[in-house]
Amino acid sequence: MEEENKSTSRKQAGLFFKMALSCISLLLALGTAEVGLRLTGFYLEAGRPSEFIPPFDEKAYKNNDQTYEVFETHQDSSVTLAIGDSFTNGGNVASYDTYPFHLFQKLKETGKKHSILNYGKCESNTLDLYRRLTLLLEERKERKLVQPKFAVMLIGSADLFGFSFGAVNQEEINKIRNPLEKNWYQDFRVYKVFRHLKYIVLNKLRIEKGLRQRQFEMGEKELLLLRKIFAQSMPYFLRDKNNYDSKSDFFKPFWLEAKSDTSLERLLLSAIPERELRGDLYIEWLLSLLSSYYSNKNQHSRSVELFLNFATRYPLLFWSQNMFKAARYNLIQTFRFQSKFPPAKIIEILKNQVEKEGQLKTNKNINGFLEILKSWDTQTQVLNLNREKIWSKIIKLCKKYGVQIILQNYPTDYHGANAFLSKVSKQYDLPLVNNFKVFKELIQKEGRSRYLYDDDHCTPEGYRVMALNIANTISLLNRKGIGTH
Predict the structure, then answer these.
(1) Domain 64-182+403-480 CATH (choose: 3.90.930.12, 3.40.50.720, 3.40.50.1110, 3.40.50.300)
(2) What are 325's strand-pairing partners?
(3) What phi-psi label fits residue 406: left (phi over 0), alpha (psi between -120 and 50 degrees) or beta?
(4) What pTM, to 2 d.p., does this model score?
């Protein structure tokens, strides 16, 4: 019996030794791999394509225009609020290419703990900004959270529509928290190579989800396919009022048509909803894609014609209280940049729609459009009076909570909005980041396409420039002791 016990003990000891040896061998192997990968890391970086690898894993892929991003190094850190419209939200790029994220990276270089709140909202206007800012500051007070030290504001391009018809985007916007402090294992080359290879495989398999978002440039063949999708979507929607889903049989013929054509496949990834989408919202999305194509080609009159034709064919849908608000917003925005349709011509078209559909005689949306068009020459004066009232409230609100406002103007020539922001800056002695001047000089030297897309929104490099402009202003204010609570 004693011999059996000794034999069992020896076996257990031998097994333990083997397991320990295996663990040690594994650690040595990983250590050797780590050293080797550090030595050859530069080769991997140079030899592999990396334009599709994001700096961090995007949590709100394709939906960051419906989220507020929180970039933070610590929950109790100094807070900078970025609030505004699509130029702040960065709805045309991933969250890691927006100016708030680039600003976070720039301020990180100071070595101080800080957080950036991206409260950009597509198609927001000055009134909508004031309401959202009020809710945010009151909520942070109730929760005893640190109030923003600075509030960087860029707003005004959507005011004409917003003051008359309200905010375009009425959906609840979710907060996405990005701590961005690395886990201990993320500095190891083994982890970095694994992540690198993962994205290479995703790219090879053409699985766009998770890859760094790349701006899609639509050409003629993509436009033809998009028109076909739109033409077939309307009867499908009108017949069944169905929601649209990427797995629906409705889209199968288009996937077959795009097979083996990368550019057409990328169009479908943009044009087909990733998640189930209400029918009218999908039709509105297709209208937006078509309008963007024309605007990108500086064919704003074709965008206006697109919306007017849709409104003429489906007047009760287009002017509905609960549908197609974004389409009506795009109509008023593109109208401002074209010359083919004078106000009188559009008034004539809208009156014909009212005659065709008697229900429209009391419709607030079409009547509101008619009023704007009839007094088009005096709209700027009325608009600025409304802006002055709201900015007075914004100033008082920020003083109440000890928040230092930093204004910035648009990098593109949105003359009315930029002029009013300059006026607010002078009237209330607020710092103004002059993006327009900086971009104008850069574009003269290096060309427009490096910094701006054709629809006037920034490229990732353009947003990086905006962030640098703001960071320089914040640095100057800190040196002067401005913005201390």
Answers:
(1) 3.40.50.1110
(2) none
(3) beta
(4) 0.77
